[in-house]
Amino acid sequence: MSIWSQAKEMAAKTPSERNRYVDFLRAVSILAVITGHWLIVALYYHDGSLNPPGTLLAIQPDTQWLTWLFQVMPIFFIVGGYANAVSLESAHRRGVGYAGWLAARLNRLVTPLLALLLGWAIFAVLLYFWDVSGGVIALASRAALIPIWFLAIYIMVVVLAPATYKAWRRWGFASFWVFAAGGALVDIAFFAADLRWAGWSNYFWIWLSVHHLGYAWRDGRMGSPVRLMSYSALGLLALVLLIFAGPYPLAMVGSPDEGLSNTAPPKITLLALAVFQFGLLLAIEKPMRRRLSGLRVWAATVLINSMIMTIYLWHLTVMVIIVSLAYLAGGLGLGFEPGSSEWWLTRPLWIAVLYAVLLPVALLMAPLERRARAPDAAVPAAARQVGGAVLICLGVALLALFGFGNAPLPGLDIAAFLMVVAGASVSGLLPGFR
Hints:
Layout (H helix, E strand, L loop, with lengths): L2 H10 L7 H21 E2 L2 E2 L2 E2 L3 E2 H4 L7 H4 L2 H22 L3 H32 L4 H12 L3 H23 L1 H20 L9 H17 L6 H20 L23 H16 L1 H7 L3 H11 L2 H21 L12 H30 L11 H21 L9 H15 L8
Antiparallel strand pairs: 1-4, 2-3
């Protein structure tokens, strides 16, 4: 049976009460992130060498406004909030405790991550013995491992989800505003008092507040389409004021402005963007849910969601492989100066080729993502799982920052990789450690 036939069969069995729009937004947001990553990278083969990769946002600053469309990670966190709320409610009905719930969530998130990191660890070792310089290994691995930053924070958001959902059910929007206020205060300290180190705590304040919007959606607390459009307008107004009357950069992705970024660390602008995007998207939920009742669109959504973590984690690895092969072939397809009319005209072909290569990779690796825990598998203690998750996130954060091959401290990349493996072992995610 073909993968499309399987998707249609799964789609036909979907319970009528499922909110298909949640899955649709998850799929669309991930495809937007992937396409945006492939588009933003500015590679140029000239005079027999590949110039150091830059970003389109720096080469053509007038394209930075596009990041307001392609920065859809807020949508993914909102969808995550909705999905975590549904999952927690289901676990409560079935009498599944925190440890059992967390074990299932970590299994889905961490298993495909382990495959990616193991693949890059082996590849880095092979490149080292082929006398490839540490700088080249680090450049390639860092480029490929950019997507894992998301898991470094999202795993901790999941670990905290039962507590934050309980806060939401007790205090409602007051709990949301606590997180939002925390993010705003951190930004004030960042800009007014030059406490740059404090900004890193916004990985929690900002993303937890965005995640809370998913709880509000699940509880039907966002109101009518008219009210949602007013929320969206307020979010857009806040975003415009923060950027054009405040100290924030225009781009919502990357760091085209040296030393300043809306994402690293996160700023309150991401919350304003989340409200702007979410208000618009939720205002059209009813007609979109009717559209998703058709089998074809829903089957496509099911297919993408069945391998969503896999395609997200591997899409930049695919790009690194294609670029490496093109370089070895004398710069095939890389000879267009980024930002030129020729470069723009070839982007559709560039993206189509990358998707054509990503699909078989995803089909090969996606079964790991769908591998469920055995029903009779022992559930590790909650404290053990939380400790393992912390180790995983620390290791992932270091690898996202430095990659393999050229860490600022000797052996830091190896230590980071071992942190992830140790965390997975402690959490019972590796065979023989459950």
